[in-house]
UniProtKB/TrEMBL annotation:
Domain Peptidase M14: 239-554
Name this polypeptide is given: M14 family zinc carboxypeptidase
Sequence similarity: Belongs to the peptidase M14 family.
Superkingdom, taxonomy of origin: Bacteria
Keyword ATP-binding included in the entry's annotation: no
BP terms from Gene Ontology: proteolysis
Species in which this protein is naturally found: Umezawaea endophytica
Alphabetic keyword roster: Carboxypeptidase, Hydrolase, Metalloprotease, Protease, Zinc
Catalytic residues identified in the record: E520
Cofactor(s) of this protein: Zn(2+)
Pfam families for this protein: Peptidase_M14
């Protein structure tokens, strides 16, 4: 058994390769350099290495562990001895490293350890080889459909929100490409195809061979990198980074800019034992309790969404470069703190990025993995093995973007361990979501953006329709629209696509009041060609929708400027002696959704306790503290409006003469009855809701209903099967001319058509706003010896500045707030 290593692997065996004595790497000096750039000559300062031959066809794992709890930063890299090519590397901030990749039996390897920083002269090395059954061979006792299969992209027609929820519930790989009439879904193989067929959904194939597209993209990426010296990206990067490059670049940026950049490890390592790394960028970066607003940009909750992490990484370079070259960015870095976490799901990304072969799409296709590496919820026989090679393949894991507490357990998440949107066993059951939760709970994160791919969207809360928008809806919309004006994306609330529960900002926003957005970068796939998905989208160049508008870099700048705007969040001012510590605390519980069960029933909501606790280190005299509003949006109330006029009279839709021919391809085939109608507006009427309905005789006949605006866009639809009516709904519709298109999908008996009738448009007023109670923070002050010297409640709204006075020294006054 190699020292410091233990892995139980169902698909392989754990083979010791060296004795304990050989397992300690030593270097007298620390040298800050890349360990993975190449094999360094023997006896180079700061380096030690071992040579091993692989005993298996399978995986090599090279681990480092600190010796005797020593502090220091060692990195590790594994090379093929013959070619000198890099096999795997690991570059975390400390000395706990795991480099893992595929090797063949007999392959000669060089394992190189590098002492990057710190005073640990030695570190423990463990090397393991894990034999794998060849891909596609079922493990004994495990039935698996493993042969590479035909993967395709299909467009599934959905009638309405309820239908979308039903589709989501199937656990298929549903993309964000969705509108009023349907959703794009990745069909990985026969099993998925069967699920879709048996569900009764109608679909049309958009890309019959996703594997070919994937291989083609990989080939073009190699080509692009070889003919491009440097891109216009802030880093000049020409290809997708590996996990070790992200971590290494972050620590190099911190080393080279110690006053401006701080690299840190998030509190929870991943299931596989990887550290998750982030950076903070601000003037005087070390003083994290200086009261400046925190702007958080993170990416890669989903393993295969590589461009998202690239965008986050480029933004770090943008800020660092901007500090010395751009007055505006310099000013913003003086007024805000920026936290960037490029790879939230480190396990998943590492697997997806290193996977071979590309474009397989079988259950063992790790390139298209979405989730994390959680195995605790899998059936017994799938619970073992390292994540790169386990009997459940890429099906293993929890969807980190369904595991946050916000409305957890509701629609739009899978209850099954193998579903692509599996919500996890409980809210925050995963290390990845706990990392973000702890960060957001302990800092005043006034602005949060989480990057995903794909579909060109700027999404805001809520993700679940039934939640109704928060009172901040107009502000949330304004900032979302502004960012969308830079990248050309569609700005809308998340629910407008379909319900999703347990997503990042549906926890962070409703619990803290910090703005929260999801951006879905790009239009063609989870990791399209680097030149389009990263370079063009980031910079705003053709073929990106943001060409000439500034691109995502400009959108990120809008977010940062918003963070720097006091009117956008809340502010506490007061005075405190130097070295005193102020703390702002709030503890509350929020219900999840009623928890959906696999059998369709629901169990009561779970009450999840959150504690928000942030600190300010007084510098003496007056302080300014940028904070989120004290009242949670969850209790503050819901956005709505009081009716400004009467509701419009209902309108009858007359069925034109004759029955249109059967048509299963609307809107590509426009055949159908067309009945124009008018939706009126202010000052005459105030419509909050419009419902268009048709009826017919037998559910065996199928009519579909679409509503098209004056530009010919389908704005809503209703296209269910097995019913004898359809109702299509629109909320807060713009006044104008519309057309109801009634499509004859199929007739029970074409000889005697069952024509539709009873067509009508009905109107309802807007839903008025509701207002909840106000919540407070508890503000405390401790003196330099840690004694509590001040305590008061603080109520502060968005845009408001509250003077808490001399809270540390004058507690009588401290209890009285004074609004400036
Ligand atoms: O499903 C997700 O987690 C996100 N989309 S992705 O394709 N990147 O996986 C977006 C979640 C928010 N979207 C909706 N509420 N529809
Ligand atoms: Zn995603």
């Amino acid at each position: 058994m190699a020292v410091g290593v233990s892995s139980a692997v169902v698909l392989g065996l754990n083979t010791p390769v060296s004795t304990a004595a050989e397992n300690v790497l030593r270097a007298d000096r620390a040298v800050a350099r890349s360990c993975f750039a190449g094999v360094l000559p023997a006896r180079t300062a700061g380096v030690d290495r071992r040579e091993v031959a692989s005993t298996v066809d399978g995986l090599v794992q090279a681990r480092l562990a600190a010796k005797d709890g020593g502090s220091g930063d060692w990195d590790v890299a594994v090379f093929d001895k013959t070619t000198g090519k890099l096999v795997a590397a690991s570059t975390a901030l400390g000395s706990r490293e795991l480099a893992e990749s595929f090797v063949t039996k007999g392959q000669q390897l060089v394992v190189q350890g590098c002492r990057y920083a710190g005073d640990a002269r030695s570190v423990v090395l463990g090397v393991d080889f894990l034999a794998l059954t060849p891909q596609g061979t079922p493990t004994p006792g495990v039935t698996a459909e493993t042969a590479p299969e035909r993967a395709e992209l299909v467009r599934v027609t959905t009638a309405d929100q309820q239908d979308k929820n039903k589709l989501l519930g199937l656990g298929l790989d549903v993309t964000e490409k969705a509108d009023a009439t349907g959703v794009d879904v990745v069909i990985a193989g026969e099993a998925d195809r069967k699920v879709l067929r048996e569900s009764g959904f109608r679909f049309e194939v958009l890309n019959p061979d996703l594997s070919a597209t994937s291989r083609e993209n990989a080939r073009k990426d190699v080509e692009f990198a070889s003919r491009t010296e440097r891109t216009e990206l802030p880093s000049g990067r020409t290809s997708y980074r590996h996990l070790w490059e992200y971590n290494y670049e972050m620590k190099e940026l911190a080393r080279k800019n110690p006053k401006l950049v701080r690299a840190f490890t998030l509190p929870n390592p991943t299931v596989e034992g990887l550290d998750v790394v982030g950076v903070e960028v601000a003037t005087n970066v070390a003083n994290t309790a200086d009261g400046k607003p925190v702007n958080l940009l993170m990416a890669l909750h989903h393993a295969r969404e590589w461009p998202s992490a690239e965008h986050a990484m480029e933004w770090i370079y943008e800020l660092v470069d901007g500090y010395s070259h751009d007055r505006e960015i310099r000013g913003l870095l003086e007024r805000t703190r920026n936290i960037i976490i490029p790879v939230v799901n480190a396990d998943g990304f590492n697997i997806s990025r290193e996977a071979e072969p590309k474009g397989d799409f079988s259950r063992f296709d790790y390139e298209m993995k979405r989730k994390n590496c959680q195995a605790g919820d899998s059936p017994e026989q799938f619970r073992t093995g390292v994540c790169k090679a386990n009997p459940a393949g890429a099906q293993r894991g929890t969807d980190p973007n369904r595991n946050y507490a916000g409305f957890w357990g509701g629609e739009g998440a899978s209850t099954s361990w193998s579903g692509e949107t599996f919500r996890g066993s409980t809210p925050f059951s995963e290390p990845e979501t706990r990392n973000i939760r702890e960060l957001v709970s302990n800092r005043q994160v006034t602005n949060l953006m989480t990057l995903h791919t794909y579909s060109n969207l700027v999404l805001r809360v809520p993700g679940v329709f039934g939640t109704r928008p928060p009172l901040d809806e107009p502000l949330n919309k304004a900032l979302g629209d502004l960012m969308a004006s830079r990248n050309g994306y569609t700005s809308q609330p998340s629910w407008a696509l379909y319900d999703t529960s347990g997503t990042t900002e549906d926890w962070s926003y409703w619990a803290t009041g910090g703005y929260g957005y999801t951006m879905e970068i790009g239009l063609d796939g989870f990791h399209p060609q680097y030149s389009t998905g990263v370079v063009a989208e980031y910079l705003g160049q053709a073929p990106a929708q943001g060409a000439g508008k500034g691109g995502n870099r400009a959108a990120f700048l809008d977010m940062l400027k918003n963070a720097a705007t006091p009117e956008a969040h809340s502010t506490l001012v007061g005075t405190a002696p130097r070295g005193y510590e102020l703390a702002l605390r709030k503890s509350f519980q929020t219900p999840t959704s009623p928890v959906r069960q696999p059998d369709g029933t629901t169990k009561p909501a779970i009450y999840v306790q959150d504690t928000l606790n942030s600190k300010l280190e007084a510098t003496g005299g007056r302080f300014t503290w940028a904070v989120n509003p004290s009242t949670r949006p969850y209790v503050a109330g819901r956005y709505g409006r009081d009716p400004q006029g009467p509701v419009q009279q209902s309108v009858q839709l007359a069925n034109p003469e004759g029955v249109p021919a059967e048509n299963r391809r609307f809107p590509s085939d426009p055949t159908g009855d067309r009945i124009p109608f008018t939706i009126k507006g202010m000052p005459e009427v105030d419509n909050g809701k419009v419902a268009v309905t048709i009826n017919w005789g037998t559910p065996a006949t199928d009519w579909d209903l679409f509503v098209v605006d004056a530009d010919g866009q389908v704005v809503t639809s209703s296209a269910s099967g097995d019913t004898n009516s359809e109702t299509a709904v629109l909320y807060d519709p713009p006044a104008g001319e519309y057309t109801a298109v009634v499509v004859n999908y199929s007739q029970a008996n074409p000889a005697t058509p069952d024509d539709w009738s009873g067509g009508r448009v009905e109107f309802a007023g807007p839903v008025p706003a509701t207002y909840g109670p106000k919540e407070s923070y508890t503000l405390t002050c401790k003196d330099r010896r840690g004694r509590l010297v001040g305590l008061t409640d603080v109520f502060v709204d968005r845009g408001q500045t509250v003077d808490v006075g001399a809270v540390c020294t004058d507690s009588a006054r401290a209890t009285k707030q004074r609004k400036r």
